[in-house]
Amino acid sequence: MSGASADPGLHTAADTAVALRARFPEAVVRSHTVCGQVVVYVTNAGAHAVLEWLRDDVSQQFNYLTDITCVEYRDPERELEVVYQLRSLDRKVDLRVKIPLNPDGPLEVRSVLDLWRGADWLEREAWDMFGVKFRGHPDLRRILMWEGYAEGFPLRKSFPLRGHWSRAEQTRQALEANPEAYYSLEELSIAEAYHELPLDVRERLAKAGKVLP
Amino acid sequence: MGLSPLPPPGAATHESISPNWITTRLDFLANWGRANSLWPMPFGTACCAIEFMATAASRFDIARFGMERMSFSPRQADVLICAGRLPFKLAPVIRRIWDQMPQPKWAISMGACASTGGIFDNYAMVQGIDTIIPVDVYVPGCPPRPEGLLYGIMLLQKKIMGETMVDPSLRVEQLVGPDGLFRRPADIDEISEPFGNSVHQTRSA
Predict the structure, then answer these.
(1) Integer Cα distance of B162 and B27 in angstroms
(2) Domain-wise residue ranges, chain A
(3) What's the CATH number where B130 sits?
(4) Which of B3, B6, B89 should one mutate to test binding to chain A, selecting the residue with the greatest count of A CBs within 10 A?
(5) Mean pLDDT of chain B
(6) What is the pLDDT of residues B49-78, one digit of tens each?
(7) What is the pTM of this model?
(8) pLDDT tens digit string along A162-173?
(9) Which residue, A6, A71, B130, B180, shows the most beta carbons closer than 10 Å to its own?
C-alpha cells in the first residue's frame, strides 16, 4: 500500500482499516473500533483477497492467524459472523476481520488454509460447531464432536442445550460410534502407513530417529 | 427409581450352592486378598484427576491400601476410577476399557460429573457413567478431596469383603445389550433428568 514507510510498526490497526477501505472499496462493508479492537466487515466474495493482501502486503504483514470462530446472535435478524482474528507478529498489531452471513442461507466461505496452515483445525472447529463450510479445505470433518455425530451443530442458536434427542438415544449413538474406524494413519500404524505419510511427518519422524526402510 | 441391572442375576445357580464353612473361609481369604491389592485403572478426564493424583502421592498415599500400582493397561486392572466428567465422545472408550478389564473388577465414579453429569447438563456430556458401565462406589464432591476418595476406596474394600463365591451373578459381565444400550432407555432418561438449577433449562430453549 502507498502508506508503506520505513518503519511499518508505526501503522496501527486503524490505519489498516483505512487502507482496506481505499484498496477494496467493494469488499469492505464497514469497520469500527470496539474496546480498542479494530473490526473490519468484509463481504463473503471479497474476503479471501482481503485476507491475502493483509498477510502479504509489506505494510500489513498479518502473518499470524490467531483464531477463526463464528458468532451467532440471539437476535434472529442479526447476521451470523465468521471471525478471523489476525496478528502481525512483527508489527505487534491485531486486526479482526468478520464475514457476515445470512444464518438461514448457505453458510459457506472460502478456506484460508492456503494462506495460514494453522487454519486447518480452526476451520474444522468452526464447521463442527456452527456448520460453516470452508470451500477448499481438504479435510473438513468434525474435530470436537466425534465423526458420525448426526445431531447437528451444537453452537447454533437453533440447537437446544441438551441436544435434540433423548438421553437414551444420545447414549446409544455414542456407544455405537466406533472411534477406531476414524483413527488417522499415525494412530493406526506408523509402520504400515509410513510411505503414505506426508513428507513433513516423515521428516519429523526422521528427526526423532524413527526412519523406516 | 425402579432401576434393574442387566442381565438378571442367575437365581438358579445361586440356589444350587449353599454357603458352608469352607466357602466362607475361602471367601474371606479371596476377598481379603482382592480388597487389599486393588490395582486402579485411572481414567482421569478432568480436575478430579488432580485430586486422584494427590491421593496417589505421598501425603495421602493410596499405597497404604494396596493401590500403589497404577495399572495403565486395563488388562491388569481391578478397579476403574473414573475421575472427571465423561463426554459422549469418550463413552465408547470407557466402555471398551471396562470390557477389557478381567474379572473380578469394580468401578468407582469419582466426583459429581462422573456420577451425575454435574454442572454439565448439556448435549456433550454423559449424565452419570452408570449409564455406560456398572458402578460400585460413587464419591461425591466437586472435586472430592483425597480423603473423600480414600473413604470411597475403603467403602469398596468393605463391599469386596462382603462378596461371596456362592453368588456367581457377581462376576457376570454386564455387557451392552442388543439395543446398543447398557441400561433400559427409560432408565437412562430417568437418570439423566435435569435437577437443581438446570430444571429451568428446557429442551426447546
Answers:
(1) 9
(2) 8-144, 183-213
(3) 3.40.50.12280
(4) B89
(5) 85
(6) 999 999 999 999 999 988 888 889 999 999
(7) 0.80
(8) 889 989 999 999
(9) B130
The minimal CB distance from B123 to the residues A162, A171, A176 is found for A162
Mean pLDDT of A193-204: 74
- Kindly compute the dihedral angle of the four CA atoms of residues B140, B144, B149, B155, in this order, to the nearest 10 degrees: -20
**pLDDT value at position B154?**
94
Contact across the interface for B204 and A169, Cβ inside 8 Å: no
Q: How far is CA B155 from the centre of its chain?
A: 12
B205 within a domain of the structure (yes/no) = no
Classify residue B177: in a domain, yes or no: yes
Q: Are B62 and B88 in contact (CB under 8 A)?
A: no
Please report residues of B whose CB lies closer than 8 A to that of A165.
Answer: none
Preferred mutation among B120, B123, B174, B195 to probe A, highest tally of A CBs within 10 A: B123
The CATH-assigned architecture of domain A8-144 is 2-Layer Sandwich (3.30)
Asked if residue B27 belongs to a domain, the reply is no
Q: Name, in order, each residue with C-beta under 8 angstroms of A127's C-beta and a sequence gap of 6 or more.
A: A133, A134, A137, A140, A141, A142
Q: Which residue has the cell 491421593?
A: B55
Taking an 8 Å cut-off on Cβ atoms, the answer to whether A176 and B95 are in contact is: no
Q: What's the confidence (pLDDT) of residue A148?
A: 82
The ipTM is: 0.80
Residue B173, pLDDT score: 87
Q: Is residue B66 part of a domain?
A: yes
Nearest CB to A163; choose among B123, B176, B180? B123
Considering only CB atoms, A162 lies closest to which of B92, B95, B122, namely B122
Strand partners, B136: none
Cβ-Cβ contacts under 8 Å for A19 (sequence gap 6 or more) = A1, A3, A59, A60
pLDDT at position B205 is 40
Q: What angle do CA B187, B192, B196 make, to 5 degrees?
A: 135
Confidence label for A38 from pLDDT (cuts 50, 70 and 90)? very high
Facing B176 at nearest CB: one of A166, A175, A179? A175
Residue B119 has pLDDT above 50, yes or no: yes
CB contact under 8 A, A160 and B123: yes
Range of the domain at B96: 40-192
Residues of B in contact with A168 (CB under 8 A): 181, 185-186, 188-189
Q: How many domains is chain B partitioned into structurally?
A: 1
Chain B residues whose beta carbon lies within 8 Å of the beta carbon of residue A176: 92, 180
Q: Which residues of B touch A178 (CB under 8 A)?
A: 92
